Amino acid sequence: MKKPKIVSGFSKLSKRRKMLWLAENFFANPEEVARELKSFWYGDPQKQKIFDEFSENTVSNFYLPYGVLPNLEINGKLYCVPMVIEESSVVAAASSAAKFWLSRGGFKAEIISTKKIGQVHFEWKGDSQKLKYLFSSLRQRIFDDTQHITANMRNRGGGISSIELVDLNHLEPHYYQLKITFETCDSMGANFINSVLEETSRSLSSFVGEQKEFNKDERELTVIMSILSNFTPDCLVRASVECPVEELGTFDDGTMDPSTFAYKFVKALRIAHLDVHRATTHNKGIFNGVDAVALATGNDFRAIESCGHTYASRDGQYRSLSHAEVKDGIFRFWLDLPLAVGTVGGLTSLHPLAKRSLEMLGKPSADELMMIIASTGLAQNFAAVRSLVTTGIQKGHMKMHLMNILNHLEASEKEAFEVLAHFKDRLVSFTAVREFLVVLRTNKASV
Ligand code: MEV
Description:
The chain has four domains: about 1-65, no CATH class; about 70-110 and about 235-390, Alpha-Beta Complex (3-hydroxy-3-methylglutaryl-coenzyme A Reductase, Chain A, domain 2), CATH 3.90.770.10; about 115-230, Hydroxymethylglutaryl-CoA reductase, class I/II, NAD/NADP-binding domain (Alpha-Beta Plaits), CATH 3.30.70.420; about 395-445. The protein is about 50% helix and about 20% strand. The protein has helices at about 15-25, 30-40, 45-55, 90-100, 130-145, 145-155, 190-210, 260-275, 275-295, 300-310, 350-360, 365-390, 395-410, 415-420, 430-445; strands spanning about 65-75, 75-85, 110-115, 115-125, 160-165, 175-185, 220-230, 235-245, 320-325, 330-340. The structure holds (R)-mevalonate.
């Protein structure tokens, strides 16, 4: 790599100039790198423009595999679910879990609540009782002042549901919040919420400044910031599966009976509840499914992840997001997940494949998408834990990984065929495959 240089006015350069600057300043083979970056541009310049404008300083596109999970039955309706993920085995595992539950009643899902939260954080040095006394007028003022932003959302059945004044002087001197609850219908609502909050902060400052009975200091209020909270514990969905234990069937080529499987499965979930190391990996498996559908449908997977992890820690310790039990001979496995997603607005209608994903899902409402995402997360989690308590994950995983290794080692079609045959019943590892290919290539060369 060449020594990086400071650049000014980079954002003003054309995309081609940005790409050339990058290729020339950071790579030994600039022409090849520029050609490669360009090879990932969309063929249609109009479509490429859409991608370029999602973000800033774009020089190329970064491809990820777009796969599908067929046969996912939720509340009696069959879905083919789009998944964007680079990790091998994830889609295969979810597909196998979907098929497993298809003949056992499918997945059930329900929306528990759909509230989202925004906060105006502010400092005020007056007597808190005075503010509390005036709060109902302030609340009305906020409703009135934000009407022009909330009108459309109210027509669709959403808007501001409640406004609360939270006194946090015990944590930090003079610190208060306006905690506002929203319903945002089929949109994720981030822009809507943030616009309302910023208008609210102006409304709040004016309201306090206008109070004749306040002294000069009390008429001063400092808004620190106004922003939605990605922690939405009241935007919650539950996905579940259940069947009589004996209907689980046998595992490990018939050597593990259904009750042993159910016992080990429930214990694995208990361990993920108790142990933070296991909980993190366990939940990562859930998010393998959740993030893949969030990405495929143009939703903000970072928001979903951060919320999920906070929710997993809500009693003070990070724990499993899913739960399992055997009660009266019935095996039950479920997941409660806060999910703030949208099916209108944002990337959902701009990204050509996100649009197709939603079409594939039958143009779902945000509620329905919450159920689809949570069920995919649960399917993923079921498949992972099922493997862990039976054969282990490496057998299946490394077989899929073998294809990645072959690509990495640039194996020809013929070599891949021989490698696949050789490793059919052998343990796959990067070193073993590389060594086998070396032998194969050396033997070929000496013929
Ligand atoms: C790998 O991406 C995810 C798993 O580790 C999840 C788990 O252990 O439950 C298989």
